[in-house]
Amino acid sequence: MKDELPYWMALAHLPKIKTRKKNEIIIRLFEDGKTIIDFFNEQPSVWANEYCIVESEIDLFRQAYKELSNYAFMVEDLLEQGYYIIPITSKEYSPTLKKNLGRTYAPPILYAKGNLQILKEPSIAIVGSRKADDISLKFTDNVARNASLSYKVVVSGFAKGVDKQALDSALKYNGQSIITLPQGITTFKSGFKKYYKKIVGGNLLVLSTFFPKAPWSVQLAMARNPIIYGLASEIYVAESSQKGGTWSGVMDGLRKGRTIYVRKPKPNEKNANNILISKGAQAVDQDGNATSYEIKKNRQQNESEIVSNAVEKKIIELLKIGTFDSKKIVNKLKIDWSSREVTSFLKQQDNVEIINGKPLKFTHRDRSIASQMTLF
Amino acid sequence: MENLKPYNLGLTGKKEAIPYLIKYLVDGSIGQRKIASSAVKKLFMKFPVEANAAIPYLINNLSHEDDGLREYVLKMIVDLKLPENTAHILNDIAQNDASSENRYLARKILENGIKYGHYETTGTVRDDSLNGFQNVDQPQAEELNLKLLFQNKISSGTIKNKPQLIEIAKELGLIILRDGHNYIGLRLSGRKQSFRIRHEFDGPEKKEADGFNSTSVLGRITGITNKKLFLIFEESGLIYKNESRQWRLTESGKNKGGEYRTTPKGHAEYIVWPGSLSKPGELEQFLKIGNTKSDASAILGSKPTSDFKQNIYQCTETRPSGVHEDYKEKYREKLAVKLHTETKETKKMNLQQAEMELKKKFGFDKFFDEQWETIDLLFKGKRVLLIEKTGFGKSLCYQFPATQFDGLTIIFSPLIALMRDQVKNLNKKGIKAKYINSEQSGEENTQTIQDAIDGKIKILYIAPERQENPKWLEAVRSMDLSMIVIDEAHTISVWGHDFRPAFRRIINLVKLLPQNLPVLATTATATKRVQLDIEKQISGDITSIRGELIRKNFELYVIKVTSEDEKLIWMAENFTELKGTGIIYTGTRINTEIYSRWLDFLGFSTTEYNAGLDAVSRKRIENGLMANKWKAVVSTNALGMGIDKPDIRFIIHTQIPASPIHYYQEIGRAGRDGNPTKLILFYNLTKDKKGIEEDYRLPKAFIDGGRPSIRNYNNVINALQEQQLGERQIIKATNLGQNQVRTIKADLIEQGIIKEVLYGKLKKYEYQYTAPELNTDSFEELRQTKLDDLGAMVDYVNLKSSRMKFLCDYLGDTSHSMFGNCDNTTLKKFISNPTEKSRQQLADFREGYFPILKVATRNSNIINGFAASYYGVSNVGAALRRSKYEDGGDFPDFILRLTLKAFRKMFHNEKFDCLVYVPPTESGDLVKNFAEKISKALKIPISHELIKTGKTKPQKIFRNAILKSDNVYDKFAFNNPDWLINKKILVVDDIFDSGATIKEIGKILTKYGAAKIAPLVIARTVGSDI
């Protein structure tokens, strides 16, 4: 696998080619059982016909081929210094990142230093403004502490404010953490010095998706934000205004159906947290738990709870034997839920798989087996 | 269909019902499906053979949209515990099916099967046999037999290429289409069933061979629609594939009413046209085409109706004509992609052409056989390990190809002298070559790097330590590389005699290079074991070429003696007999001085050389050697690697080297011109109290003490677990010697416990999270191997048979049987027989020989001084020890006499105003008393004003220069310093070690205005004498 790394770098850092296209090449190779070395050794006509690379792009690939020796030097040097180079087909690659970003955005290659096992652990990210209030920072500390206690990794971007607080808190409570750099991994000198013991001790992983020598820039800082979201299974929002990075990140996440928890602000606070909650994020209290309001609501439904439970059970049982949309479920089971209620109930269930389409269909997870044969 | 209910036909419960039921399943309504599936399930359980046979059909017939149906079938298959050979069929579908959905499904079934224990993964087994399918519908069976038919014809060679395939297909009334790697045969009438032949006509390896090439595209298949299979060829101009491999309508396609749909799951996109186009003439109307074969559209219905129209156009031309306008452009673009080979550097040149170039560029007429063998392989992009004796002409094997390649050739070499010489010679021949190493300034190296990037150089020599230079690594990215050469390749093997950790990184690099980049490794000294190690490390497709090692012009001698003096005396008596210029190798640096002075004393012109010299001095001596400036250069084994002097006439070893390989390499530098050359080895076999021979002791001590203790390793590891440290910081933190730290560092890196990381210009060492436990087994193994090698060297000394044969055998060259030219075979032995006259000469020499103290430096007025003796030589050291640590009283008189003698001889021209002495740390007034005696004898006034201002520890407890300097830094002062202005001061001390104390005093006195400071000490140490 190591001798493939120069080829991976050559592909990953091709200019002007979209990530999606690179990943589709990778998928095609995977399906055909070929390696990236095979790919680069193909004739340009094969590139054109089999991999849909157009004329204008062929030269870029040719140039990359020519630079393979040079990449070899770079790979040798990176490996010698203890950096890891992780292509998307490697088993070290974060499965969460792959799932969240998909073939369109998942970076073909990751550079990392530290304990690689961290990439496979359940993870959260705590996002918020760079100029955060104390109450937001306290929230961040609480959530980070809880995460560390329950062995969840905290993903950070090493940015000022909430982000940095998340990192520092996680490390303080002896939890594990990922720093997602807005720059190339070899440029993080002061960070490696400061966090040396944590890295050596296995609690911190430093990660970068950019060219190893790339210096910090605004573009890279922006490009890095989706990676943070991608690496986390759950997102906690400490504080957001109605525009800016945090806002757009959360809105995007909600659109994609991500699990996002937003801190319920105090009545006198001036931020957009409530708006986010109204848009579909889940409200949580200062400790990161679902707010008492929700629990109260459930308690009110005490009586219907027993009935609800029975109905819920029925629905789940039904899904174990087939795939149905909400309307069908209602009809089949002759329950008095609206199909919308069924849909939202099922969306929240961990053991129910949602199949996209019009209408949305549901089935029980046990029926579909995660295929190792697919890449995404 | 409706009439053909199985039970109507009386087929209930009979296997004949299966096909009908399956049709229901596939084509029927939901209700019919329900009935059919439960019935089929039961029948499947009863008749597994038919079940097997039916599955491919079922799966092939599944339409995309129908989730429910797929569920049924999946479930049916999964729950039924089908026999194993279904796995093969499913596997085939999982790999070869045109539709990704089918592939996915089949995979899922396979995995279900594995999960439930039905199947085992046996890897990808392709079994296209048609077991069990014969009983189903005749037409189907026919089709599948067709598949077999084609397979057989292909494998038996009846069908060798595509035209033949098409021919036969035509005869059978089939259309042959191509989709990706598959050929799809379709019946003209009847089923939409298709079969697949996967044959690597178009596989990547067989590009031109079969007459198939990518331009002979027949057509592409779109997705499958609900109920209708549309086969629209690209060439029809109605559709095309966009950049993301999705089918899209061209303008004309849209005009014809084409639309595209996606299956609800988003798995497949497909294109539909209105109507069934099955009425006669409809197709032509639709496409507005004539009856031409070359045209492109075929639509087949899936319903097996009898009035199925045969509106099919056989598209078996290799190139479409009459292609629709706006598609032509796109198609042409694709075809226009250049097809020339992109393999790097397969240089095509035969021997004749090469020798013409050789004459032109290098002035030689011919290659040696092994040279051409090597060069030929390199031209083909291969990897070669070349093991040839010194003087063979290994350099030509890389220099010549380098001039023929387009890009840059990089040569990794540890030999700075060699680089210099070779670059000079190449540039003389008009070949642009340069080097990068520590001898050059930073600016020169940077300029060289830039020239390499700009393509201004053909050959670049680099010391392997460059891999650690960030500028270099950055620059290499932009260089156009054609070949990599590793010189002295034995240095990459730990089993080799001269392992260099920096070379190990070169190996990592070589493993990452593209496979067709030529790599050449050369060495003169590699035993079989080392050769295998090198081959394994370079890996890939590597050829080893080994030449013979015998040096016919060598005369090998061994002289056994009983004392060091005998060696010196033999030299005195026999040196004149040695013709020409040569090299004398000694075991220690002190001995280089002693032998060189002794020979000077005898009237011969010599100079000394060792690795501790600065670059300027080294260059001066190397150049002088080339110019025969001296009769001999006396050196440690640092000299000679790579020196290109053809006429070194003798090499004398006063101390045995560590192994026969070292010896072969060290003598290998002599006699390149083929003229008779004398190689002499001394061995002192006097046994000490423990029975160990004298000359065996020193190398054995090196091996035993070579490695620091395990405790020290752990100290370094612990230090690095706390923080990142640079080399100096490690030295400080652990109080270990510089060499020790370097050895430990290299071993820890080797074992993956630490890594060296570059931050800008700073090198820091980092402990790795994944670090394994320290492995000390390999240390012991290596130590044992080294002891074995040393033992072999002693065997050489004691040999009674041919010495050359012994050396060749040891190095893996067993090619020759006739050996002569040593003092065991054809030559007369040299005997050591010292005369009284010679002994006296030696005694005289010893009396007048005083070691120099090199302390002179730019920022200080201190000059070089002298010691009366070396600490470890003669009885001086013992006497000092007695006085200092055993209460032996003041230094004895003979020491005083010797010191005065040294002064008179070396400082007789100097006038001193005053004498000071170094204030003591722990030995009381010994030095003071001694200084007073000196002062009286020389009549130089003594001053007691040089004092210590701070507490110091005895220097001897510090193991390295850095700590020793720190210890004495700023610790001295002079009372009434004004007196010192413009004075000449003599500084007296007992022992001179690192010189830190003397240098510091020199600095202080200079600060106070002293004009000249000269040190005079009793004994000078070398290494860890104390």
Largest sheet of chain A: 9 strands, mixed
Question: What proportion of the residues of chain A is helical, as a percent range?
Answer: 40-55%
Shape category of chain A: globular
Assembly state of the chains shown: heterodimer
* Share of β-strand residues of chain A: 5-15%
For the sheet with most strands of chain B, the description reads: 7 strands, parallel
Series of H and E elements of chain A: HHHHHHEHEEHEHEHHEHEHEHEHHEHHEE
Count of DSSP H/I helices of chain B = 35
Cα-to-Cα separation, first versus last residue of chain B: 108 Å
Alpha-beta content class of chain B: alpha/beta
- What ranges of chain A have pLDDT less than 50 throughout 5 or more consecutive residues? 292-303, 369-373
Number of strands of chain B: 31
Q: Estimate percent helicity of chain B.
A: 40-55%
Beta content of chain B: 15-25%
What is the number of helices of chain A? Answer: 18
Largest interface: A-B, 68 and 67 residues
Sum up the overall morphology of chain B in one term.
elongated
Strand elements of chain A, count: 12
Give the averaged pLDDT of chain B, no decimals.
73
Structural class of chain A: alpha/beta
Strand order of the largest sheet of chain B: 12-13-11-14-15-10-16
Structural overview:
The complex is a heterodimer of chains A (376) and B (1026). In chain A, the strands form two sheets. A nine-stranded mixed β-sheet of chain A has the order 1-2-6-5-4-3-7-8-9, sandwiched between helices. Chain A has a three-stranded antiparallel β-sheet with strand order 10-12-11. With 376 residues, chain A is an alpha/beta fold. In chain A, strand 7 (234-239), helix 13 and strand 8 form a beta-alpha-beta unit. Chain A has 18 helices and twelve strands. The longest helix of chain A is centred in the last third of the chain and has 18 residues, at 302-319. Chain B is α/β, with parallel strands linked by helices and 1026 residues long. Chain B contains 35 helices and 31 strands. The radius of gyration of chain B is 43 Å and the shape is elongated. The termini of chain B are far apart. Residues 118-144, 178-182, 185-196, 198-235 and 275-345 of chain B have low confidence and may be disordered. At the A-B interface, helix 2, helix 4, helix 5, helix 6 and helix 10 of A face helix 4, helix 6, helix 17, helix 18 and strand 23 of B.
